[in-house]
Amino acid sequence: MEYVMDWATIVLHVLTLLIVIASFLAIRDNRNQTKDALAEGRKQSQDALAIAREQIEQGKQPILIPLSPLPLTAVVGDLDSTVPELSVDLMNVGTGAALNIWGVIATPESFSRRPFSFSKEAFLSTSENRTVKLGLVKK
């Protein structure tokens, strides 16, 4: 009977050892899965932050619209090139300030070949309107 108890004890110890080894392997696999999940979560968070930053930057862009009509000649659609400059009222309807305003107004080739251009160093803040002078482009 003592002999059977010794074998039973040995078998019990071997089974306990196998359970301990299996537990350590499961813990190691779980740790690796957790590391992978954390890395994926960090990557998704960084991607989401990059998209949010881009949307914020895009939301700060100025949008300029003309408020006044262009002075036209009797020929429909032709700009009056007899004046040295034109005045155009612009309004910023965007969410960001227009810090450096540039533009060109050109007519189709069948009309006047002298486009008007402008460069305004002043800025136009949100919901502000200002008159911009357009000068004839020199040939």
SS-based class: alpha+beta
**Helix/strand order, N-terminal first:** HEEEEE
Largest sheet entry? 5 strands, antiparallel
- Mean pLDDT across residues: 77
Number of domains: 2
Order of adjacent strands in the largest pleated sheet: 1-2-5-4-3
Q: Estimate what percentage of residues fall within beta strands.
A: 15-25%
Radius of gyration: 38 Å
* Overall 3D form: rod-shaped
Report the count of strand segments.
Answer: 5
Helix amount? 40-55%
Give the end-to-end Cα distance, rounded to a whole number of Å: 117 Å
Q: Segments where pLDDT lies below 50 for 5+ residues?
A: none
Helix count? 1
Note down, in words, how this protein is organized.
This protein is rod-shaped. The longest helix is centred in the first third of the chain and has 58 residues, at 2-59. It has one helix and five strands; from the N terminus they run αβββββ. The protein has a five-stranded antiparallel beta sheet with strand order 1-2-5-4-3, with no helix packed on it. By secondary structure, the chain is an alpha+beta fold.
SSE order and pairing:
Elements: H1 2-59, E1 64-66, E2 85-92, E3 101-105, E4 116-120, E5 129-136
Antiparallel strand pairs: 1-2, 2-5, 3-4, 4-5
Please give a quick description of this structure.
With 139 residues, the protein is of the alpha+beta class. It has one helix and five strands; from the N terminus they run αβββββ.
Defining key terms:
139 residues, alpha+beta, 2 domains, five-stranded antiparallel β-sheet, 1 helix, 42% helix, 21% strand, rod-shaped
